[in-house]
């Protein structure tokens, strides 16, 4: 039987050293660069729950450099929405492995 490896299982995901280094905006509108979001919707309103979650899911999935995480993620907002983010399982495990408080908050 042939076993298939999904890209989401092997692709690199970037995780910061600490949540405190995240210094992204906590309010307002955020425009993602095309390196992170190549869809027609690149502007996200942080006061809108769906926009906030979409922005965080996109940044966590697509960031290749820790600076991208620092620029677009806020630690308080991240903790507040973590359990409701739709993320690749490996990305979630990597983040929760480094920041067990995210997993505990979701439990």
Give the N-terminus to C-terminus distance in angstroms. 37 Å
Strand order, biggest sheet?
1-2
Shape: globular
Provide the β-strand percentage band.
5-15%
Helix content: 40-55%
Tally of structural domains: 1
Which characteristics define this entry?
globular, 6 helices, mainly alpha, 107 residues, 6% strand
Description:
With 107 residues, this protein is mostly helical. It has one domain (29-105). 46% of the residues lie in helices and 6% in strands. It has helices spanning 7-10, 49-62, 66-72, 75-81, 89-98, 100-106, and strands at residues 29-31, 43-45. It has a two-stranded antiparallel ribbon. Helix 5 (89-98) packs across helix 6. The longest helix has 14 residues, at 49-62. The termini are far apart. The model has no long low-confidence stretch (mean pLDDT 92).
Short description:
This protein has a two-stranded antiparallel sheet. Helix content is 46%, strand content 6%.
Describe the SSE topology.
Blueprint: H1 7-10, E1 29-31, E2 43-45, H2 49-62, H3 66-72, H4 75-81, H5 89-98, H6 100-106
Antiparallel strand pairs: 1-2
């Amino acid at each position: 039987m042939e076993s298939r490896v999904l890209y989401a299982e092997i692709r690199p995901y970037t995780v910061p050293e600490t949540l405190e280094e995240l210094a992204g905006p906590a309010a307002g509108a955020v425009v993602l660069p095309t390196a992170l979001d190549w869809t027609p919707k690149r502007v996200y309103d942080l006061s809108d729950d769906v926009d906030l979650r979409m922005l965080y899911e996109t940044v966590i999935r697509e960031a290749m450099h820790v600076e991208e995480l620092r620029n677009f993620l806020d630690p308080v907002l991240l903790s507040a929405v973590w359990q409701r983010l739709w993320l690749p399982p490996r990305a979630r495990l990597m983040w929760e492995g480094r920041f067990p408080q995210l997993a505990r908050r979701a439990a």
